[in-house]
Model the fold of this input.
Amino acid sequence: MTYSKPGFLIPRRSIEGQEGEWVKTFDPPKESPPTPEFLRPTNPVPAFVAATVKGAKVSIPNTQRVVLMHNESIEMWDGEKLKFFLLSNPDVPVAKDGSFPGPTIRVPRGVVFHGQVHGKTQPPHTIHWHGLEPTAINDGVGHTSMEVGEYTYQWQPNFIGSYFYHCHRNTVQHFDFGLYGFLIVEPPDAFDPSDGKNVGGYPRRTAANLTQFPEFPGFVGGDILSGDPHAMTVPYDVEAIWVIDDLDSAWMEQADHAHQTFPKHGNKPGINDRFHNNDRGKEDFFAFHDFNPDYFIVTGVNFPGRVGSTVSIRPGIKIPMELNSGVTGMQVSVDARINQTILIRVECAAYVKIKVTFPVDVVAIARDGRAFGVPPYGKYNHPFTINAGTPLELSTAQRMDVLIRAERPLNSFAQIEYRHHLSNAFLLNGRIPIIVR
Done:
């Protein structure tokens, strides 16, 4: 008995003609199964978007729609065009042909969320709701949950914070080619206009325990189980989202087909699958182990420089309300006023090493969708200060939420340092303007 010939065989029956039963793992699926234990959705955001965004509609009540995927070429800072796979929302005209990143989804804590996801093109796709805690079949991890076809994902968010959603089928390629978007869980009343607030603007609130940081006004303590929608939250006046990404143009040219590295299944899964069926005529299966990025991006905006350079994006960049669940004024480069509370949501969508350095002290209030010091985790962690000039290191898929409150004018930059994941070689220093007037 050897490793290659272990001397035993696990018998498996043929699945030919029974693909629907095996829709979790069959490639491609031929059915679009119903959602188990289907509940009535209660998410108010699609209706708010339809009432706020010109031309937007609600196709399915209280339901967010996501379509994968749109093949689009996007021009980089130097004129080079790279092929992307994009997520779209067909209910919003600006978002119907896809965007990079995908449209930001905002959801109040506690609602029943439905995401109706349609795989526009082969191969099969999933949506993984990264950091949330759905049932297994609604989690969207390829091969272990539903691969669509078409499917309505169902979950109920329990924790206010920063998350994201992405295709989790052939993840390495599909994620880097643009099949991801930011996802924000807000307080339960974030889209409730009954108290006269402007639900599509600022200030807004996020989860935090700022008992030890009285410089941030408006913090509400208390018990999050009390029914107070603002318990353990703080208001913020300015919101910026930094999704830090890197692109290898060689990857995007050599593996420009979303189905290129998928196996062709035989009738004995795991036994007679053919991994080289989609090669270009030879046994040249494209593996993604050799990653050398040459373009660097924050929230879809190019840092306009080549490897080895230090470059800045321009000030005044904002995210259109049509791509931000109808909320107006979310920023990339930061422009604020003295004594405003600034919330920066940082996500690492890069595959190389990332260091983020701020020009002023910031207070870290949450990581990976969980607020420090907020029950039930209050005994195990707490918010902390990151001093100006101290690097914050992030790896792929990590998020960090930080607060800034400047008492005097500031005209400076945050630094995003990219270093090679293997050699640690310096790749680029991207600068994001932070202006406080």
